[in-house]
Amino acid sequence: MIDNFDAIYDYCTTHSGGEDAVLARLNRETHAKVLYARMISGPVQGKLLQMLASLSGARRILEIGTFTGYSAICLARGMAQGGELHTIEKNPEIEDFAHRFFIEANLSDRIIQHIGDALEIIPSMTEKFDLIFIDADKEHYPEYLDLSLPLLNDGGLLIADNVLWDGKVLDPEKHRDKETQGIVQFNAKILKMNELERIFLPIRDGLLVCRKSIERFES
Ligand SMILES: C[S@@+](CC[C@H](N)C(=O)[O-])C[C@H]1O[C@@H](n2cnc3c(N)ncnc32)[C@H](O)[C@@H]1O
User: Minimal CB count within 10 Å: which of 28, 78, 182, 189?
Assistant: First the structure.
C-alpha cells in the first residue's frame, strides 16, 4: 500500500527525467503569481502528454484550456516537425504570461493562442486535428466532447484531464455540483462510444486517453 503519495510522485518525477529549466520556471512562477496554480498539469502528466503526442505523430493539436501554458508546451514538444498547436483560454489575464513561456520554449511560432470561450471558438474551426486535449471547465466537458470529436481525424487521440475529479465520480452523493455532474456525464458518454478505444489512467486526477477508430469495436 502506498502511504506517502507525495514522495512517490516526487520519485516518479525524478525518474521521468524531471523538468527542464523553462517548465520548472513556469511551474514556480505559476505557483507564485497565479490563482488556482494546482490546475497545472505538472511534470509527470506533462511528460506523458509529450510522449502521447510524439508516439501518435500528431501534426495538429487542439487544447481546450491553456491556463499558464504548461501542457501546451509539453504537447507541442511532442508534436511532429512543422506541426501547430491551437490552444483556447477564456481568461485574457493569463494570455501574456503563457505567451512569454511559449517564447522561452522557442515554440511561439507553433503555438496559436485563441482567447475567448471555447464553446464559441470550437464551432468556428474547420480544419481537423490529430490530437485534442480537453482541460477547461468541468461543467462543459460533455459539450467539448460533442463539439470537438467531429474535428478529430480518424486514428487521432482524444485526451481529457480530471476524469476522476478528486474521486467524486465514485459517490452519487457528491454529484450535486455542476462540475462533478459535467465529468460524470462526460464519462457516461465516453462509455457508450464504441468508436473510441480508450483507457482511464488513474494518474493525478484521472487522465482519459481515447483513440478514434474508423472501425467500430466492442469494448
Ligand atoms: C485546468 S486549467 C488548464 C490547465 C492547463 N491545460 C495545464 O495543464 O497547465 C483550465 C483552464 O481552462 C480555462 N477555461 C475555463 N472555461 C473555459 C472556456 N469556456 N473556454 C476556454 N477556456 C476555459 C480556465 O480559465 C483555466 O485557465
Answer: 28
